[in-house]
């Protein structure tokens, strides 16, 4: 498992953060609620040993006292100042459940908040579809009317004939494809530009949540926003295939319930994003170093 370099909560001391350089922990720890600096910490000065000081004993190889064998988490990793599992790896001697992560000093958004935001956005996209797709839907109902009329005639007349209902019009299938293409395009146009600019759709702004890249507190950009939307939005085109697309979207929507510790949906994992709660007041975000009174 390869973990990108960055500041993470130290599994050995959840009250602090340390910098993971891809192979081990480096630098001095900082409080977990403090905003880490950009990039790695400055190198620590090497202690100066006086010439008259007797030569100290050779360092003991292997993990520090009290920690589990290093082979428990990564075979072949040499013990030393950066000893400890990488960020995201399970720590063998963790006392109870680890503390909930705070990406970029912000709390993770709850599933309820994410669902509420998605329902608001769905209502907006549905209204747009009602305006744009209304004429195509009316035409589609006209193509189905012979079969619908015959069905109700049989119900009212208690006709138990086994003859098949009249087939739908020749354009029924084409109209379904056109409506799905329009619905998918409207969803893309509504969500992707807004997410690329500030990580929030209208629904997310109302609920007070935001999408950020895992590695930095920065805008998503169009490419990442499009990758994130593709996983959830493109299956709309498969609704025509016996509802397969709707099933895929349902699985994606429920996936944050089963992901730990960052509660990422499948589309979050694809784009390497995380959904956080936006601070209502400045004190909701962890104070940067030096700003604590």
From TrEMBL:
Keywords: Cell membrane, Membrane, Transmembrane, Transmembrane helix. It is a multi-pass membrane protein. Residues 108-271 form the RDD domain. Residues 37-48 have a biased composition (Pro residues). Residues 1-98 are annotated as: Disordered. Signal peptide: none annotated. The chain crosses the membrane at residues 119-138, 172-190, 232-251. Residues 49-60 have a biased composition (Low complexity). The keyword Disulfide bond does not apply. It is found in: Cell membrane. Its main location: membrane. Residues 5-37 form the DUF2510 domain. This is Transporter.
């Amino acid at each position: 498992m390869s973990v990108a370099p960055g500041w993470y909560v130290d599994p050995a001391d959840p009250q602090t953060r340390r910098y993971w350089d891809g192979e081990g922990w480096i630098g001095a720890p900082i409080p977990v609620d403090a905003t880490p600096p950009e990039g790695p910490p400055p190198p620590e000065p090497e202690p100066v040993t006086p010439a008259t000081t007797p030569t100290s004993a050779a360092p003991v190889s292997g993990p520090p006292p009290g920690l589990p064998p290093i082979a428990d988490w990564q075979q072949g990793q040499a013990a030393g100042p950066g000893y400890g599992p990488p960020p995201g790896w399970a720590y063998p001697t963790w006392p109870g459940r680890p503390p909930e992560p705070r990406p970029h000093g912000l709390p993770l958004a709850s599933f309820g908040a994410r669902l509420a935001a998605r329902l608001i956005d769905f209502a907006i996209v549905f209204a747009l579809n009602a305006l744009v797709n209304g004429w195509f839907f009316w035409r589609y109902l006209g193509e189905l009317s012979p079969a619908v009329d015959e069905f109700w005639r049989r119900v009212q007349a208690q006709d138990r004939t086994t003859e098949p209902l009249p087939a739908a019009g020749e354009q029924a299938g084409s109209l379904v494809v056109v409506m799905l293409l329009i619905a998918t395009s409207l969803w893309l146009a509504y969500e992707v530009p807004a997410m690329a600019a500030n990580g929030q759709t209208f629904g997310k702004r109302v609920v007070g949540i935001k999408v950020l890249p895992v590695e930095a507190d920065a805008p998503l950009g169009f490419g990442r926003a499009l990758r994130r939307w593709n996983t959830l939005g493109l299956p709309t085109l498969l609704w025509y295939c016996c509802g397969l697309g709707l099933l895929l979207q349902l699985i994606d929507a429920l996936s944050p319930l089963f992901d730990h510790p960052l509660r990422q949906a499948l589309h979050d994992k694809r784009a390497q994003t995380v959904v956080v709660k936006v601070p209502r007041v400045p004190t909701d975000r962890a104070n940067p170093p030096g700003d604590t009174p």
